[in-house]
Amino acid sequence: MVKYLISVLAVIFLLSNCFGDTFTHRQTGKSFNGYATQIIRQNKTQVRIENKKMPQYLDLGDYEIHYNHLGRKNKVYTISINDSVDLICEAEAFEEAIISTANQGPLFILIEIDTPGGRIDLAKRICGAITQLDNCRIVAFVNGGRFGAAYSTGAAIALACDELYIADNATIGGATLVSRTTFETMGVRSRRGGTSRIPYGRTIVEKPIVPSRPDDDASTLTAYISAVAERNNRPAVIAKAMVDENIEAVEVTETGETLFVEGWNKKSNQTLVRTWSQEGSLLTLTAAEAVQCKIADKIVSSARELLAALDASKAGLVRNNDVERAKRQFAKVNRDFNEVSGAITYLKSRSEELRRELSLLEGTRSRWYGYGGYWYERDLIERQRLMGLFLSTLDRLIGNYRRAINLANEYLDLGADVESLSEDMNSAIVEYEEIRNRPPW
Question: Would you say 31 and 22 are in contact if contact means Cβ atoms under 8 Å apart?
Fold first, then answer.
C-alpha cells in the first residue's frame, strides 16, 4: 500500500506543472502568447501561437510559461458526469473529450458533477485523465442536480480538478450503500415533479463504491483520494474520511495555524477545534462545510456565476456531449445485444427440437430399411425437409453468435462471456458441417 501511494504521489507531482499562455524563451527573452496542446511530435509539443495559422512544435523546457489566458479562446468547454460511473465506454469518452477540448485552447474546462459514485477503476481513469492534462486548467462544479452531490468516487473526481466549486444545495463526500428499491422508493425526484432533497446525514445512493478488480478496494481508494486532494492543497484527512469509515478527522490549531489531522495523531500542543468525522461513518459535507474545511473553493449557484467568479463572464459556454453520446450509444448496443441473446436462446431451443425430430425419423427409417430393403419416399422427403430446416436454423444461430461476439469484444460493458459464446458457436459450426455432409438418403 505504501509503495502504491508513493508511486501515485510521484506521478501527480511530475504532472502538476502550471498551465501556460505566455511563453518566454529562457535564453533570448523573446516571448509570445498562445497555448500548448497535448499533441507531441519527436518529443516536441504542438503550440498554437496567437495570430499564426500554423502551429509550432517546441521544446517546452526552453521556455518560462506563465498562465494568464492571453492567446486563449474566450470559451469554456463543459463536460458532464451526471450519473453513476459504471461504464468503460463512458470513461474512454471522457479521456478523449478532455484532450480534444483542451486542444481547442479554452480559458478552462468545466467538469459538471452530479453522481452517486461508481466503479473505483473507472473513477481512477477519469481522475488520471484530469491530473495528467497539463495544458489547460480544469474546474469542477458539483451542481446539485438529480443526485445533489458528488459521492465517494465522484468526490475523488471533483478533488482531482484544479479548482472545486459547489452549489449551495449540493453535498460532497461519502455515502451509505442502500438497495435500488430503497433508492427508488424514497427517491430523489418527487412524484409531483421537482427534486426531493436528501437530508444531510442520510445519503441515498444506489452503489457508491464498486470494486472491479481484486486490488480496487476501499483501501486503494483511500490512498488515491488522499493523493489527489494533496495535489491541489486540500486536506487529505478530510478526503480520506469521505471514503474510509475508519478515519476520524479532526480540525486543530497549532501556533495559530489550522490543521486537519486524524484523531489518533493529534498532539498535546494542538487545540481541538472540531471533530469532522467519527470512526464508523463516512464523512459527507454540505456546501458551506466543504468551503469551511477547504475542500471546495467557493459556493456558486450556477455555471454562469462560476464563470463570473473566474473572470470569464463573457466567455462562451460550449458543451461537449461525447460522454452522453457514448452512454446513449451503449444503451442502443445493449438493446441490440439483448435481442441477439434472445434470438440465440430461441434458435438453440429450435435446433434441439429439430435434432430430436430428425433422430426419431432416421430411427424409423432404419427399421423400414431392415424389413423392406428400401425407404418410403415420403420418409425420404420428410428427412430432407428436416435437414434443410436444421441447417437453416444452425446457420442463423451461428450468425447470431458471431454478432454477439463482435458486440461483446467491442463493448466490454456488456459483461458477456466471450469464451463461452465462442465455444457454443464452434459447437454449432461442427454440427452444421456434420448435417450438411450427411447423404441425402
Answer: yes
Neighbours of 31 (CB within 10 A): 13
Query: Quick check: 15 pLDDT over 70?
Result: no
| Amino acid at residue number 390 | F
Can you spell out the DSSP letters for 58-110?
A: E-GGGEEEE-SSTTS-SEEEEEEE-S-B--HHHHHHHHHHHHHHHTT--SEEE
Per the CB < 8 A criterion, the answer to whether 66 and 57 are in contact is: no
Count of CB atoms situated within 10 Å of the CB of 123: 29
Would the CA dihedral through 314, 318, 319, 322 be positive or negative? negative
Q: What are phi and psi of 67, to 5 degrees?
A: -85, 120
| The dihedral sign for the CA sequence 20, 21, 26, 27 | positive
Q: Please state, in angstroms and rounded to a whole number, the distance separating the CA atoms of residues 306 and 78.
A: 12
Cβ atoms 414, 401 nearer than 8 A: no
* pLDDT tens-digit series, residues 91-133: 999 999 999 999 999 999 999 999 999 999 999 999 999 999 9
Task: Work out the percent of the chain whose per-residue pLDDT is above 70.
Answer: 81
* Cα separation, 6 vs 125, whole angstroms: 18
Query: How many CB atoms lie under 10 A from the CB of residue 219?
Result: 14
> Using one digit for the tens of pLDDT, what is the confidence trace for 123-151?
999 999 999 998 899 999 999 889 999 99
Q: How far apart are CA 441 and CA 438, in angstroms?
A: 8
Query: Which H, E and C letters describe 183-223, residue by residue?
Result: HHHHCCECCCCCECCCCCCCCCECCCEECCCCCCCHHHHHH
The set of cell numbers assigned to 382 is 420428410
Whether 322 and 329 have beta carbons less than 8 Å apart is answered as no
Question: What does the block give as the cell for 115?
Answer: 453522481
